[in-house]
Specification:
This protein is α+β, with helices and mostly antiparallel strands. Helices cover 56% and strands 15% of the residues.
Amino acid sequence: MTLLRTVGLVLKDVDRPEADVVTQGRMDAAWQQLKTTKTKPHIFHDFIDAERADVVHLYDPSARVNVTIELGGVSTDGGSDPAGPPTYGFVMKKGPFKGRDPRELCREAIAFWRTYLDAIDEPTR
């Protein structure tokens, strides 16, 4: 999740200085528009940006993995035999995306960046 926020930082600190003046202007305008809309798009403000801050600054990620191991019968050596492979449940434990699968949110975040970067590359869209 932290890497999702890094896309914008690389755009600002690496790509922008190397870009021509017109492209720099499009980058600045896109960033300014994103900052002024503080709540939308939610995937940026409430997931990409907020989760990065929680992970990097507070070490308090919202994403959790719940692992379930179904136990079968008890073996003769006193151990137990699993009834099948473990199952994994990925879930956001708090925040505006509570209950959602963080892998799904990452896909949405990647789609957001793709649209954002395409708009900078092709301003006539």
